UniProtKB/TrEMBL annotation:
Pfam families: BPL_LplA_LipB. This is BPL/LPL catalytic domain-containing protein. The keyword Cytoplasm does not apply. Residues 10-195 form the BPL/LPL catalytic domain.
């Protein structure tokens, strides 16, 4: 089980991940984040789970999470930026993931635009950005799924040629809480101070 205390001990964010909602199992962390939006919960609210039953990817693809081994999470944002710039969020998330994973594991993963995280020519993660407006209020949900400590046997046989994890690649296991904290730290820094430099 992911430790909220260990996660927050690794954060140096102002708001991202400071409010956490954890469930052992859920249908979709993105759907849970939209409930938070409807309830007017604070920007930076983080939802993560050990098992996502109906996770979705881009173009309605299905995302499978491995309980106790993957990172499956979403967070809520209320950006104040032109609507036309919303495409930047997939890039902000991707850059944060690549840098965060490298900082902790020294493993270089890559981005396949617009939403895949690639390792050794195989998919190890994905990003799903969703947006909604309510009057003048804009909401963004950033959903991320990453294969961290899966073994080869955890990957469905029909996906083993296409999917991988950090552990499969390196033969090591990693602290998921630390990886998540560093990704959130990096994302908030880019979001608050540097997004305009990336456009």
């Amino acid at each position: 089980m992911l430790s909220v205390e260990q996660l927050q001990a690794g954060l140096n964010t102002e708001f991202l991940g400071r409010e956490v909602k954890y469930q052992d199992q859920t249908l979709s962390t993105n759907d849970d984040a939209w409930i938070c939006y409807q309830n007017h919960e604070s920007e930076g609210t983080l939802i993560f789970t050990e098992e996502q039953k109906h996770g979705r990817g881009r173009r309605q693809g299905k995302w499978i999470s491995s309980p106790g081994k993957s990172l499956t999470f979403s967070f809520l944002l209320h950006p104040e930026m032109p609507f036309k710039e919303l495409g930047i969020f997939s890039l902000l998330a991707g850059v944060s993931i690549v840098k965060g994973i490298h900082d902790i594991t020294k493993i270089q993963v890559g981005l396949k635009w617009p939403n895949d995280i690639i390792l050794n020519h195989k998919k190890m993660g994905g990003i799903l950005i969703e947006s909604h407006t309510e009057g003048a209020k804009l909401g963004i949900v950033v959903g991320i799924g990453l294969n961290i400590n899966e073994s080869q046997n955890d990957i469905p046989k029909n996906l083993q040629m296409q999917a991988t994890s950090l552990s499969i690649y390196s033969g090591k296991e990693f602290c998921r809480e630390l990886i998540l904290a560093v990704i959130l730290n990096e994302f908030e820094k880019l979001y608050l101070y540097h997004w305009h430099e990336i456009i």
